[in-house]
């Protein structure tokens, strides 16, 4: 049966919601990608009941059954990465190359977890008591609610859905309102992978209705959330109140440190990629460029030159390097912070201007500010746009202090030729991920991802560490 387009996937069926939401291309606001169903409370209830009914049997499914389903999904994503990557770029605004790369990454994640499904490990230990056997095993949580943001519409859903299924959970997937196209396409592929009805469900709709219902319902035993700090706090509060397991991945204000012995071309290249690629709309984007005073003037000059050379335009145009901002609301937030930086006394070097292109879209030139102070408000709060602030540092120790002086702790990078400083930085950066001579954004898919402080809470995502969240440990004692 052909599922009706852009409906929600509930209890093994495509069900249109009582209302729809228009999906608009941020590179060309005349381009309507489609109308997507919005679930209401009745549809959420149907999905919850269906997931709760499906979870016990799926929890007992064989690792082979799970591996086969996940591998099928990964293979189809890979085979269709060009078309899906284009759809992703069209609705989210990152470039076509970035969109295709993200879908390929989502495919790799499904294929990785297809194999992880076969590696469900436990421990058997000798007891401290005579004759007793002790066994440590892992079991599924049951029903998990997966709530995702708009900036990685394929990769983030993949890195939650794949381990959730691999470890035997029933999934309620709630994508961000702004990117239902990729979520729907991914769900359509999953719907044909041989999973029993109710094991995977797509619930598009407003966070306040669909997301909140998942937070509040006792049938949802695990909540995996990626998004803003404010929403993350609501997730944590609801989960703690009713004893559900939760993990949160939230914002960042990531530093990129440039020491006086750095290869300056590499330092600038990494800074441009970290700060401005994907229009700066990455939780791992570097927005604070902390530069040793001995190379400060030279760095700012080279950085300005590289920033001015970036080609901003339609996400699907072949020569575009920086696509549009996702929507008007985010654009207004970026412009507000740009005005704030000026008002706080940061020196505008280049960019921060609205751009006109052939199509009506939310185009903004990447903004570079110099002579910033880490205490300025725009250096402390996540902007989530193409805005970078250069902050001078007296020496390595000062740079490290500045890097760590932030409420966040997701990714932290340094550019240096000194093994001593690189090793010290790896050890002392207060972040979940550290990059030496590599951009702060751009990570492998088979190792843990996550941060510290206000950036993350709960178990790490991705790689074999994903088992920590998506399964529950049981210790059994037996006297034969
Ligand atoms: P957001 O918090 O506005 O929305 C995230 C998701 O939460 C959406 O699906 C939304 O519908 C849902 N939601 C909203 N209200 C809800 C409620 N009351 N109950 C349940 N769910 C609700 O975030 P966003 O604007 O989509 O994404 C941008 C943010 O995501 C940035 O802060 C960025 O740093 C962060 N992010 C973090 C990571 C990471 O891994 N650390 C990765 C990507 C993005």
Features:
single chain; 480 residues; alpha/beta; Aldehyde Dehydrogenase, Chain A, domain 1; Aldehyde Dehydrogenase, Chain A, domain 2; 38% helix; 22% strand; binds nicotinamide-adenine-dinucleotide
Q: Could you explain the architecture of this structure?
A:
The chain has 480 residues and is α/β, with parallel strands linked by helices. The protein starts with 7 loop residues before the first strand and ends with a strand. The chain is globular and about 70 Å long. 38% of the residues lie in helices and 22% in strands. The model has no long low-confidence stretch (mean pLDDT 97). It has helices at residues 41-59, 63-79, 81-92, 96-116, 155-166, 180-191, 207-216, 229-242, 264-276, 296-308, 328-343, 396-404, 419-428, 466-470; strands at residues 8-10, 13-15, 19-24, 32-38, 123-126, 133-140, 143-147, 170-174, 200-202, 222-226, 245-249, 254-258, 286-292, 347-350, 367-370, 387-393, 408-409, 411-415, 433-436, 452-453, 456-457, 471-478. The strands form 6 sheets. Strands 14-15-16-13-12-18-19 form a 7-stranded mixed β-sheet, sandwiched between helices. It has 14 helices and 22 strands. It folds into 2 domains: 8-250 and 455-478, Aldehyde Dehydrogenase, Chain A, domain 1, CATH 3.40.605; 254-436, Aldehyde Dehydrogenase, Chain A, domain 2. Helix 3 packs antiparallel against helix 6, helix 4 (96-116) runs parallel beside helix 5 (155-166) and helix 9 crosses helix 10 (296-308). Nicotinamide-adenine-dinucleotide binds at residues 147-152, 174, 176-177, 207-208, 211-212, 215, 226-228, 231, 234, 249-252, 283, 382, 384, 410, 455.
